[in-house]
Amino acid sequence: MEGSVILTKKVGYVVFFIVLFIFVNVVVYNILEINKQNKIDISLNSHLSKLEIQYKTLMYHWRVTANAAYKSTSSINKVIDILSKAQTSSIEEKAILRKQLYTIMKNKYNALKTKGVYQFGFALPDKTVFLRIHRPKKFGDDVSKHYRIEYVNKFKKSLHGYEKGKITPAFRNAYPLFDKNNNYIGSMEISFSSDTIQKYFSNVSKIDTHFLIHKDVFNTKIWKKYNMDERYIKSKEHSAYMVSLMDNNKNNISNNIKLSSIKECIYKKIEKGEKFRLHNIYNNKTTVLSFFPIRNIKDKKNVAWIVSYENNDFIDLTIKSNTNIFIIIFFILLVLFYFIYRNLNQKMELEQKNKNFEYLLDSTMEAIVLSDKNNKIIQCNQISVDLFKEKNKSSFLGRNITDFVPNYEISELQKSLQLVYSKPRNCNLLKKDGTEFPVLASGRDIVVNGEKVRVSIILDLTQIKQQELQLIKSEKMAAMGEMIGNIAHQWRQPLSVISTASTGIIMQKEYGILDEDKLIKTCNAINDNAQYLSKTIDDFKNFIKGERTKTIFNLKNDIGSFLNLVEGSIKTHNINIILDLQEDIKIDGYKNELIQCLINIFNNAKDVLVEKKIKDKFIFISTYKKEGKAIIKIKDNADGIPKDILPKIFEPYFTTKHKSKGTGLGLHMTYNLIVDGMGGTVEAINQTYDYKGKQYSGAEFSITLPI
Predict the structure, then answer these.
(1) Alpha carbon of 455 to those of 17, 378, 385: distances in Å?
(2) Measured CA distances, 682 to 73, 124, 307, 591, 611 (Å)
(3) 3-state DSSP assignment of residue 268
(4) The pTM of the whole model exceeds 0.85
(5) Angle of helix 462-511 versus helix 555-565 axis, rounded to 10
(6) Which of 627, 570, 603 is nearest to 699 (CA)?
(7) What whole-number distance in Å separates Cα of residue 679 and Cα of residue 677?
(8) pLDDT tens-digit map of 213-249
(9) Hey, is 388 helix, strand or coil?
């Protein structure tokens, strides 16, 4: 009888160790898979970023080329004179004028062709073509259906973007032309062929690239008339797109790969219309495909894609090494579990097994709690006892896990318990004395001896939260130090007014020349300046208080408080603040934290403006609503952020300032307060813009907040 009991126990522990072995391997496998996928995602993103940067660089150079050609052409008096005369000329006269214009422009066109220009022409206000430099014998046709021509004629503004033409799609740049009296006399167009992109990436950037064009482009009579569709074949990536035959190099990656395994995924992502990347394994080699959408200039619909193919040995190595590591860990765990079990013998073996298991739990940094199907705690590690301030494990075991959860968290807990695996999430738990503390918790169901067991892993975030709070306080103290100087500067004038007014009253009283009107006027001046000082004190007091209470506040008023706090710095450095604030925007969030973010962004802009000795310093602040969210845009004219620095500005401790002037935490804290604290987004780009007829460039910060 006793032997059968021992045998039953041994069998039970064999099963237990098998389950534990499987669980640990599943956890290890998942960790390795997550790590592998993170590495692959980073590598894939780098390929997509590379393609996007190359494309945007090319678009930038094309825009510069087109703008330069437009400016130089519009400054040629003879060209303007010809187009002015063409407005009222007869057919015969237009022919003469057209020939003159062609003679003037053909050398410029030949020079522009070396920079990728495909089409160069002029249209009259009646939307007929006056001259195509690239096809001088083709003129007089109606181009009113071309959106770019219609736009320029209507708004007298330039337009840039991708648009289908009669013969070929191209990247269009259309500009208005005016005579010396500023009368509109027609439009000028400079276009770059989509085939040029493919040549650029293949020949210059050495990237195997396709330019996919939607097949609807080919369903026109003129394409069939000129047999243009013979230059294209159906894309292997998507049946609704065509690809140019201009580059049919058999050694290209795209010609030596099959996409059947990822075809469905490509279709779905193309239908979504957003840029994407994925990888394909063919013949034991990994190829990264990056897709970047090209949108129509008129309706912003996707009509083309740039697709790049690049081999990636890093992903191959990552997949192979991940498999090898798992195999090694698997056998290490197998041998480990085997030796643990072999050394168990009867009761001593059972006790040793329990001790080893408890040691495994206690060796982690996290609190690990095991509970049964009724949510009763059946096992835990010592970290759990210490974390929840229990006397010992005995006082912890047998309790319901809901005893340690605040009422407002119970519903989320019940949802998590319904899942076999619940992902790590932030929540609050209760210590024995009822004190709440923040944790990161996750859970997974396992089966032991035929019974479901819930494994909960809890990581204490108290110290991390305290560090975040200390970070906010330190940045705030730095901002307060500067603001005290600002306030001192702001107070000089009103204090001077109050002092002068009060002294004047005394002197007028002594000389008997004080009358009631002067007294009232002087007292009003004293009161106005005192109110100004009081308002400054209130704003500064509210900012110092820094209560982290979520309230509904008026965005315009909050920006007003922020400007009051930095007014001294604004005046000291002669900064022009240009406001465009919508009246009725209300935010449900933390007003003091938003002020802190605005101060951080302002200080960065101010420092750069001062450092670069910009003569006319501008900071523009605008607010508006979009798609149910509040948008705040802040931009300066300090020439922007260097491209190599721009992606890093929100990283912790990254700063370009001397260590005595910057900690590198301001923008990182701003990112945390906006994204994590208020559920919004913040991003920065370099922007070129016009203001009062002058062109400026600088950094533009965009903050999006839920309303």
Answers:
(1) 15, 10, 16
(2) 41, 45, 29, 16, 25
(3) helix
(4) no
(5) 70
(6) 603
(7) 6
(8) 887 766 656 555 555 556 777 888 888 888 876 655 5
(9) coil
